[in-house]
């Protein structure tokens, strides 16, 4: 089986460019309805989570780097910067992430927000175009539900997708650059938990080394800015707070998290049951993905498996992180012809990020699991046919 390089659609293109964007617009309307009476509502600003990045960058330029990693100081300081009592908005990223957010502090908030979204999506589009993903597919990504959620949240989903997808897609052609991109993804470590194992399983040792060195250099480079104290604050205060929020947070946050862990919690399961479900699911997707990376099958199928596995492996994943899912669907779709039932699974996974605002059972992890299993089945069939011929 050989991978086709043209634009292949997992379902009818008019559905992607028509009906699904309409659902996205409905999401925008519902999500932004609380802002209609003013520029601020529910203790949030328009752009929502971007206020964390921008406020952190402002503090970095002021020389107050340590403030970022102690929420008891960061939260009231952020209120002062914005001039408004905000919702709970801690800075949950490691000290090495300062190089990601630092530039946005050079601009006023209302200019920095669109610049952030446009530049990070342009980076994602550039990485995909260099892997011969067509413009129609990239436009479909821009209007996908995951993209709409990321834009409404002012989040970093475009950037993390660009680094993860871009790095994986370069493994065979430019292994050193692939490793650097994957290493830069360490600003969001929960998305990289499975990657070292996949690189080792696939024999991508140059990428593994480059990624490891990139992470190490980022840590070392952060020390003159945050010092050892900054890392101590992150480990002693920020990380435990994130764990507490994951386990005991409630409300909208829970519905935005399509993980095995949160699915069990939303269904009323105990913490022990939730962690057991997450562990079992993670072990399965890890084992299956590692097997795939050792097979001689279409490269795009391998990357689609890696992306869908990444979405299932971590217990801490939110809807704006799901930009990697439509990329996985589009990569898988151009490898072969898919059955209508498989396309139905693609469609469910594509619209999955919209579930957070709908009064429906927690099905996000179910849709992602079905996507993983569908792609895995085709990969197993491809492996049985023997080595890929190009």
Automatic annotation (TrEMBL):
<feature type="transmembrane region" description="Helical">
    <location>
        <begin position="272"/>
        <end position="293"/>
    </location>
</feature>
<keyword id="KW-1003">Cell membrane</keyword>
<feature type="transmembrane region" description="Helical">
    <location>
        <begin position="50"/>
        <end position="69"/>
    </location>
</feature>
<dbReference type="Pfam" id="PF09594">
    <property type="entry name" value="GT87"/>
</dbReference>
<feature type="transmembrane region" description="Helical">
    <location>
        <begin position="12"/>
        <end position="30"/>
    </location>
</feature>
<protein>
    <submittedName>
        <fullName>Glycosyltransferase family 87 protein</fullName>
        <ecNumber>2.4.-.-</ecNumber>
    </submittedName>
</protein>
<dbReference type="InterPro" id="IPR018584">
    <property type="entry name" value="GT87"/>
</dbReference>
<feature type="transmembrane region" description="Helical">
    <location>
        <begin position="305"/>
        <end position="333"/>
    </location>
</feature>
<comment type="similarity">
    <text>Belongs to the glycosyltransferase 87 family.</text>
</comment>
<dbReference type="GO" id="GO:0016757">
    <property type="term" value="F:glycosyltransferase activity"/>
</dbReference>
<feature type="transmembrane region" description="Helical">
    <location>
        <begin position="345"/>
        <end position="376"/>
    </location>
</feature>
<keyword id="KW-0808">Transferase</keyword>
<feature type="transmembrane region" description="Helical">
    <location>
        <begin position="137"/>
        <end position="170"/>
    </location>
</feature>
<keyword id="KW-0472">Membrane</keyword>
<feature type="transmembrane region" description="Helical">
    <location>
        <begin position="176"/>
        <end position="201"/>
    </location>
</feature>
<keyword id="KW-0812">Transmembrane</keyword>
<feature type="transmembrane region" description="Helical">
    <location>
        <begin position="208"/>
        <end position="227"/>
    </location>
</feature>
<keyword id="KW-0328">Glycosyltransferase</keyword>
<feature type="transmembrane region" description="Helical">
    <location>
        <begin position="99"/>
        <end position="125"/>
    </location>
</feature>
<keyword id="KW-1133">Transmembrane helix</keyword>
């Amino acid at each position: 089986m050989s991978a086709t390089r043209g634009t292949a659609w997992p379902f009818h293109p008019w559905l992607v460019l028509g009906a699904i964007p309409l659902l996205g617009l409905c999401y925008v309307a519902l999500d932004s309805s609380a802002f209609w009476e003013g520029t601020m509502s529910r203790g949030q600003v328009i752009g929502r989570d971007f206020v964390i990045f921008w406020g952190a960058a402002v503090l970095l330029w002021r020389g107050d780097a340590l403030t970022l990693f102690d929420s008891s100081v960061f939260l009231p300081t952020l209120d002062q910067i914005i001039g408004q009592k905000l919702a709970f908005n801690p800075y949950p990223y490691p000290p090495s992430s300062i190089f990601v957010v630092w530039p946005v502090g050079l601009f006023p908030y209302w200019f920095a927000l669109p610049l952030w979204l446009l530049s990070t999506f342009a980076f994602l589009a550039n990485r995909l175009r260099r892997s011969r993903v067509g413009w129609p597919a990239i436009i479909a990504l821009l209007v996908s539900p995951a993209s709409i959620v990321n834009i409404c949240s002012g989040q970093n989903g475009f950037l993390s997708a660009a680094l993860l997808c871009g790095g994986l897609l370069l493994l065979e052609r430019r292994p050193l650059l692939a490793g650097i991109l994957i290493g830069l993804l360490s600003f969001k470590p929960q998305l990289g938990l499975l990657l070292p194992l996949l690189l080792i399983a696939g024999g991508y040792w140059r990428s593994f080394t480059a990624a490891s060195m990139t992470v190490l250099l980022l840590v070392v480079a952060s020390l003159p800015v945050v010092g050892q104290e900054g890392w101590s604050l992150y480990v002693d205060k920020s990380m435990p707070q994130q764990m507490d929020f994951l386990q005991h947070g409630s409300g909208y946050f829970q519905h935005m998290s399509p993980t095995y862990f949160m699915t069990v919690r939303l269904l009323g399961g105990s913490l022990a049951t939730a962690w057991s479900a997450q562990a079992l699911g993670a072990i399965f997707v890890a084992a299956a993905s590692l097997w795939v990376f050792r097979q001689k099958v279409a490269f795009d199928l391998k990357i689609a498996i890696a992306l869908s596995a990444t979405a299932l492996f971590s217990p801490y994943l939110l809807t704006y992180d799901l930009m990697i899912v439509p990329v996985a669907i589009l990569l898988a779709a151009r490898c072969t012809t898919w059955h209508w039932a498989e396309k139905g699974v693609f469609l469910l996974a594509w619209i999955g990020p919209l579930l957070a605002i709908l009064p429906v059972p927690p099905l996000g992890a179910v849709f992602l699991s079905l996507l993983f299993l569908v792609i895995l089945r085709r990969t197993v069939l491809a492996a049985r046919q023997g080595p890929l011929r190009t």
